[in-house]
Specification:
single chain, 244 residues, mainly beta, 2 domains, five-stranded antiparallel β-sheet, four-stranded antiparallel β-sheet, globular, F-box associated domain-containing protein, At3g26010-like
Amino acid sequence: MDYYVALAIPTLKEATINFAIISSILPPSNSSRFLNPVMAIKIKIYSSETRSWRACAEPFTANQNSEFLGGVYWNGAINWFSTSGDSLYFNVEEECIGTIPMPPIPHKDWKGRPFRYYGESNEHLHLVIIYNPRIQFDVYEMERNYSGWFVKYRVDVGSVGAAFPQMMQRLSWDPMYYSFAILSLVRDEKDDEDSFMVLHVPGKILLYNLGDKSYEKICDVGDEHCNGNGMIEDSLMYFWFHSF
């Protein structure tokens, strides 16, 4: 039995009650997980108003490839991202499960989606998937009715790599990627041209403006170290899930 915990914090526009959701994943009774590709899910809800737990409706089934880590609260629901299986969401108020359509995996050589960022900002849900070593990538946004993802921004961080050449080194622990991480994406409520990403490159935290493509250093963080082959080791100290 595995347990996963997700925290739902509604905005002041929605409610003043916070919910914590714990999901327990159980293999279906009288079945083998190797023969049956589904698993049974039970959810309990904790209300900060009543200070008590209660069971949520009936258990439901999900594909065993579904993942319940890194849940993001958006659109009144906890939204999970799966690298290969179905991505699911749990609507807290209606207490129901739904499926999040995912961008197709483009090549048969890839068994999963190498996502580099998944988060919410000002009631927008964003996703970044980067296949192969690339400094150009798309930022996807989910439609509020869960009908699909659309490309919100097309990003090219080549200018950042030119200014900070350490970024163009391959990660020693994952040579498929250059040495940068997206820590956060912040949408400006008044002017989308002022929306920005927070990037981590070796030794530095940067602000990258999604409107005019400018960038600036926020602060220095630690020192990067290279092995004998010039590969950066321990160059990135933080990733998107550290910004929660």
